[in-house]
Amino acid sequence: QVQLVESGGGLVQAGGSLRLSCAASGRTFSIYALGWFRQAPGKERELVARISWRAGSTYYSDSVKGRFTISRDNAKNTVYLQMNSLKPEDTAVYYCAAKLNPASEYGYWGQGTQVTVSS
Predict the structure, then answer these.
(1) What does the alpha-carbon distance between residue 85 and residue 90 come to, in Å, rounded to a whole number?
(2) Which of 5, 13, 24, 19 is nearest to 110 (CA)?
(3) d(CA 114, CA 6)
(4) 2-17: per-residue pLDDT in tens?
(5) pLDDT, tens digit (0-9, with 9 covering 90-100), for 95-106
(6) What is the 3-state secondary structure (H, E, C) of 78-96?
(7) Backbone phi, then psi, for 74, in 5-degree steps?
(8) DSSP letters of 53-86?
(9) Strand 78-83 and strand 18-26: pairing?
(10) What angle do CA 105, 58, 3 make, to 5 degrees?
(11) Is there a contact between 10 and 115 (Cβ–Cβ < 8 Å)?
(12) Each residue of 60-100: pLDDT tens digit?
């Protein structure tokens, strides 16, 4: 089992920055990748960034590329999402999730943290 706990959400003005953290515990050695997802009211859940646990390779959706940066600290079992130049359309609940191998679904989820960007 893997447990994930997000923190760092809040209210920020457009153009501002926030950093989200996702602390992993449990069988962290079995994690293949961690992703940050978001879901706004009435919209589908969206994968915004992903990082492989060991290699550190990253993926970003087009909607956040150039503004968000995902990183990890393996010693702390923590993944971060640095969000800059925030826009009102970034408002959503942000979740981190883990998958244990390339072909699997994201099977472990945190509780989510609210990010609200005011215009």
Answers:
(1) 10
(2) 5
(3) 10
(4) 999 999 999 999 999 9
(5) 999 999 999 999
(6) EEEEEECCCCHHHCEEEEE
(7) -65, -30
(8) TTT--EEE-TTTTTTEEEEEEGGGTEEEEEE-S-
(9) antiparallel
(10) 45
(11) yes
(12) 999 999 999 999 999 999 999 999 999 999 999 999 999 99
Q: Which amino acid is at 26?
A: G
**Integer CA distances (angstroms), 86 to 17, 59, 68, in order:** 6, 19, 9
Instruction: List the one residue out of 20, 25, 31, 27 whose CA is nearest residue 3.
Output: 25
Q: Give the whole-angstrom CA distance, residue 83 versus residue 101.
A: 27
- Tokens 């589908």 sit on residue: 44
Cβ contacts of 22 within 8 Å, gap of 6 or more? 4, 5, 6, 34, 36, 78, 79, 80, 81, 96, 110
Do residues 86 and 18 touch, judged by C-beta distance below 8 A? yes
- b vs e for 3-14, b when ≥16 Cβ sit within 10 Å of the residue's Cβ? ebebebbeebee
